[in-house]
Amino acid sequence: MTSFEIGRRALLGTAGLGLIAAPAIIGGQVFAQEKKKLAIDRVTPPDIHKFKVGSFQVLVVKDGARPSGNPGETFGTNQSAETVGKLLADNFLPTDQFVNSFSPTLIDTGSDVILFDTGLGKAGRAQGTGRLVEGLAAAGYMPEDVTIVVITHMHGDHIGGIMEDGKPAFPKARYMAGEAEYSFWTDGARAGTPAEGNQKAVIANVKPHADKMTFLKDGGEVVSGITAMLAPGHTPGHLIFNVESAGRRLVLTADTANHFVLSLQKPEWEVRFDMDKTQAAATRRRVFDMIATDKIAFLGYHMPFPAVGYVEKQDTGYRFVPKSYQFDI
Questions:
Q1: Which terminus of the chain has fewer Cβ atoms in its 10 Å neighbourhood, N or C?
Q2: pTM score of the predicted model
């Protein structure tokens, strides 16, 4: 049985402060604290959620969650604090803090076991995150079972779990990522820019797998029934994925929208970690107009766990409707 080093705060359930996209966490320092080794079967497993999309089995793992600071410093940065606070209060949410969670997703097609994003990995464990592998094990999947790892984009909270102690965390997997995304982050032009820290994480965690990587463009196929759609703005090559099986459909929206109220009800509001804020807002409208019009479910990486729901058009934005029993009957 695999053992993990889990910090005292992680074991007790307290979390460190952090920001939403956490692009620099891989290369950053982790808080020093006393640690103890606990076998995985002695640790309370992270939250997991299973449901079916046609013949595909979907597993969502809560890689962790942590409180972040003033929501207005991340969402609605082109709005006044009063405007952001009012929208939060109108939706029964606190105005001074928000909770950010991370939801890597596994799809078992019967032929392949496909993991979409890898969470924060070992660098997040002192803060109570990086629990993907534990969640997979709780659902009966070992790292060796994963046949494909798909990266929606290359921020630290999506690529942190690709490597474990300098070795591939999913040793039998091949990899898929956006061609434009990989090209951007491995370009030497990032050196000396605000993107340099995240570039170092990409070089350390993603580039070692380049020889096993298939680079996807808009419309590229992962496997039959799962195709990529380019959804840029959050990052230059940000991808989302359309999943279809036996007449059922789900869209993995990754970081297209990162707050179920602030990013959906007000898709035009700027988000701190969107690299091209105008393009990101246009992408949000395009993607969620499609989801609302077609009345299909979506899974958003930072939506409230289990991160699955629907949207309906409301005023100038969208209302989030969490999934219930739709996929169970």
A1: C
A2: 0.88
